[in-house]
Amino acid sequence: MTDTTIDRDKLRDIYTRTMRVARADEKFRSLLMTGKLAVIYYTVRGQELVSAAAMAALEPSDYLVTTYRGQHDQIAKGVPLNPLFAEIAGKVGGTCRGKGGSMHITHPETGVMVTTGVVGSGLPIANGLALASQNRGDGKVTMVCFGDGATNIGAFHEAMNMAQLWKLPVIFLCQNNRYGEHTAFADHTKVDSIVTRAKAYGMNGVKVDGNDAIAMYNTTKAAVDRARAGEGPTLIEAMCYRMMGHFFGADFSYMPPEHLAEMAAEDPLPRLRQLMLDHQFTEAELDAIVADLDAQMDAAAEFAANSPLPGPEEIRKDVFEEEIAA
Amino acid sequence: MSQITMTQAINRAIDEAMAEDEGVILLGEDVAAKQGGGVFKISAGLTEKYGENRVRATPISEQAIVGACVGAALAGFRPIAEIMLMNFVTVAMDQIVNHAAKLRFMSGGQTHVPMVIRTTTGVGVGFGGQHSDMLEAWFAHVAGLKIVTPSNAADAQGLMRAAIACNDPVIFIENILCYGLKSDDPGPNHFVPLGKAAVAREGSDCTIVTYGRTVLDALEIAGKLADEGISVEVIDLRTIAPYDEATVTASVEKTGRAVVLHEAVKQYGTGAEIASRLNEKLFGKLKAPVTRIGGAFSAVPMANALEQAWIPNKEKIADAVRAAVNWKG
Question: Alpha-carbon distance A255 to A301, whole Å?
Answer without folding.
Answer: 32
